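Sample entry (757 residues):
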Amino acid sequence: MKVLHVTNEVSKKNFSISSLIIFFINTLEKVYPDINSQLLISNVENDFIKLNNLEKFEEKKIIKLKFLFLKLPRLLKNYDFVHIHGIWAPIQIISILYCCIFRIRFVLHPHGMLLDEAISSGGYFKKTLKKICLVLIKIFQVETINFISITNQETTEIKNYISKNEIKLVPNPLPFELDNNLNLPFEKTFVYFGRIHPIKNLNLIINSFVESELDKKGWKLDIYGIKDDDEYFLNIKKLIYNNNKISIKEPIFGKEKQDIMSKSWCNILLSKSEVLSLSLIESSALGLPTIYPKELDTGDYKVSTFPVNKDKNAISEKFIEISKILNEERKDIQENIYENFLKIQNKSKNIFIETFIDFYNKSNTDKSGKSLFEYLILSSGYIFNFFVTSFLVVLLALTKNYSYAADLGIIASFWITITQILSGNRRILILSDIINSEEIILKSTLFRIFTSLFLLIIFFNIFKNNLVNYFEINQFLIISTSVLILVQWVNEILLSKKELENKLTYFYKIFFSYVLYLILVSYFIFTKKPHYISYLNTVLSIFITLNVFNDLISFNLKKFEIWKINNIFKFDLSYFSSFSLTISGFIWRIIVFNSFEKSLAGILYACFSVGSFPGTFFNNILGPTYVKNKMQINIVIRYLFGILLVITILSSLFYLNKTYFNEYQTLVESDYFGLTISLSLIGSFVMVNALYKRQKMIFEKKMRLNNIFYTDIISGFSIILILPLLNFIGGTIFVSFSYLIASFISLAFYNTLNFIE
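Predicted structure, serialized as tokens:
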């Protein structure tokens, strides 16, 4: 099993995290030889490598990323499990987002970087960036992410900022062996080990020590600090000027540090933010007590600490109190702390090994489905394939090419309606019926090819002499647009096949082809050469057709007896299902056109189109892939949908109140529009829910397909009657409720079917 650890740097400054990661790798590989771990970092400090004799480790285990962020996704995908230590460096943030997007199983180990003070450090700008990063992580968060906290306090912060998922509490073990000597004589010295940085509150420590006046009684304060902030370091030097009992010394490690700890009277750690510091653990291993802030969680190390408020007077009093401890009492404290440490270490190491082995094993058994990125690529392929001509019409309208927009809009609507009527639920059947998918793909492709040719011949034979009378644009653009839509209809089958085979290469081709197409279309429109779109349509149609035929020749045509016409042109309930779902909207348009004046008809067209768009989009584009892969909507997006639903309900109530009182006077068109679109948008939430239930029933195969298709047909034809019935009962106001009621009827039908089965 390949495991990758990711952190910003391995250095003396980050001695705690760096040592812990090395301990992770060495310990787990000893216990489980099948694990092969590596460490990905932005920077490595040679002094840390030399200090810990890690020259061979660096050669075998450490990967330096440098500026290779573009290669990071491929690198991460090479590993079974990724363990990310820390959160705020670019390498950490990018790795987290990549793992979420590509559904790579990983664990996030913040190491205290989510505590409030850690987030606030660095000023307003950095704090804002950190908050943005947390929002992104929360949005992209998927089930492949696990969280490790070191203390209960950190668990709370993770829940507040990112996740409500299960969070494993794994206290840090001591990440190295100790040559402890508990028999050294004690010295009248308070010590600090760590970074010289504002977050460590060294100015408070120094001022409190000075106020205690212990320096006048022979007590010392030794600061073994790694310089991490030049300006703060100079300020600290000014504070201790002329005080020979307070010293800033070079950082020490190993046996030298352990000897100093064994002899010192008390350790000091008054950080603004900390989670179970290595300084506290290491001090406990040597029986050295630590002055520790009351508000910070010490886990099982309460015996090791003298808790204190972060107040100068309180701290100076604590200094004085500790200085009065007798030598014999200090020895008892040392023994109690050391015994408690041994108990904690046995427990901590067991939890540590069990937790991470469990995570690593899950990475082998829990193979994730589609990543968010893959899902977006798949969806974009279908979106472009289905909506590109609609994009084209909108772009023409926005640039005031109204004649082109109107004519192409009619052409596109005609062909899209025809193809949707004849679609026969093929994509859903292909993705849900894996056993028979090859036969469905072949026969559906041939059906759509022959049907497209037949429709084109019929269409142009009828209108060949009258196209000029019906349309202002040239015939080549009409023909090329018609051909493109029909080619895209055939291409939907190929896209479904590639999705089923999990081959994304074709989706990348389609994505970039359509992006290039839209760029060139935009160029020709803005340079006032919209007639050139004909050539782009032709080129794109040829490109898609070649891909379809290239795939078609790979089939064993004899196997499925495709020479029998009835095998290809065999209409079943799936076709009547798609017909009923499409024709109801078409008939509504005719009824509206004949029943209302143009201004109200236009409002109803627009509102019903907006309301039905989410359902159409889900049913034809997002739904099949979403349901097939059992994907879950992120909690943040759920909240957004919830907020939108509440807003539309309140909006509908507002406009209903205004419109109802105006009905007996003069109907205000803007109020009527607001009412109708609000009600239709509420209906869209209900309709998407209904279509989700429908697709779920198909993919889960808990009921017969024909029963679902019968339900589609009954539901579709029932919906046709809603609009004229509401118009007859209550007139214009009641018609506004048409799409909302239609959505509830659809939901009721699919719920009833589910209940009956």
